[in-house]
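Entry for the shared binder. Reason: the reviewer on the internal report wants the predicted structure included alongside the sequence.
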Amino acid sequence: MAKVDTSRIIETERLILRPHGVEDFAACVAVWGNPEVTRYIGGRPQTPEECWHRLLRYAGHWSLLGFGYWAVEEKASGRFIGDIGFSDFHRPMEESLNFTTAPEVGWVLSPDVHGKGYATEAVQAALGWGDAYFKGQRFVCMIHPDNRASSRVAEKTGFIPYAHTDFKGAPTVLYERPAR
């Protein structure tokens, strides 16, 4: 097992946000292979190969950029329940949308923990880390307009919608959280 960078661990009342490891692969496949999870994120379950690439992207963000995604672990059970973090995916967006100039925040949790407030708790914790790391930076996220659960999480954590667009053939709402 790889050595864990404990400086990147965030604890909340019910969750641990920690670096991903190879041992998270099977759980990542289970989460991202679930049609309910991907209904608004790409529209189809991800293959194990795509999940492996995802884990490598997460590690690459931390290695090359100093920020990235955390594995979300439920404290009570110790199990992997999803991903949350910051990215710079170089998304092909019109410059006028002012999306790619800010760190992008994203989150996904296993459907069996939906409705428990975990997403809001994890996003708030990640944003606290981000406010300290990025110092005065605005944050952005993108959400399918039919994904009301994620829209509520965004709004509860200080994001406001600022543009409606199309991304890879799907309607998308762009949100921003002003710098603090």
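Summary line for the report: The helical segments are 25-32, 35-38, 48-65, 118-134, 148-156.
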